[in-house]
Amino acid sequence: MDIELYYKEQGTGKTMILLHGNGENGDYFEHQMDYFVKKYHVVSIDTRGHGKSKRGVMPFTIEQFVEDLHDFMDLHHIKKAIILGFSDGGNIALKFAIKYGERVEALIINGANLEPEGVKRHVQIPIELEYHLAGIFAWKSPKAKKNRELFGLMVNDPFIKPEDLRSITVPTLVIAGTRDMIKEKHTRLIAGSIPGAELAIIPGTHFIANKNPYEFNSAVDKFLYRLEKL
After folding, report:
1. Secondary structure E strands in the chain
2. Which of 97, 127, 199, 228 is found 20 to 30 A from 61 (Cα to Cα)?
3. What is the pLDDT of residues 130-161, one digit of tens each?
């Protein structure tokens, strides 16, 4: 691993890893950190090139972020964890669970997508335009270069086949907002493709974990509570 990811941690017990979305950092999960720290060892990570984590020299892709997470867990001696991923963090979590399922205790996916087509077109079209516009200036502007990489994650990633999700055997909760930028039928496809996955549609937008934390945390808490009773 060419970099060490920045992270915050609190609490004791089973480890819960929080993975933020595109262009954000671990602070997005402030309400989850405060809530779940009562029961778990909560670790909020800044993805490569986000927040306080350095960009490094490796590819800026969801696949690389999966390897970064694997290396992070090895470095910090985390054998297994509950993984909660939002948006691009959810995409990372899905790919991680497909490749390293033995390292996942339970999976909570919020606002993830299998491919760019899963995003509503009125949201995706401006992203694609910004991606191509940033490409024009990337050669002379570090900011444009960074923006192109960030938008590229939503244009060129993640491309997960629904049948790939069938290999996920850990308990899974799929969450989305009623007014999410991810198409509801796409969220239902994800939930329906993971054996035994539960689905929760919560009032709010794509950013329900931050904007509607009470209902979001309640849904996650009830899911994890049921697992503990099995």
Report:
1. 7-10, 15-19, 41-45, 81-86, 104-110, 172-177, 198-202
2. 199
3. 999 988 988 889 888 998 999 999 999 999 99
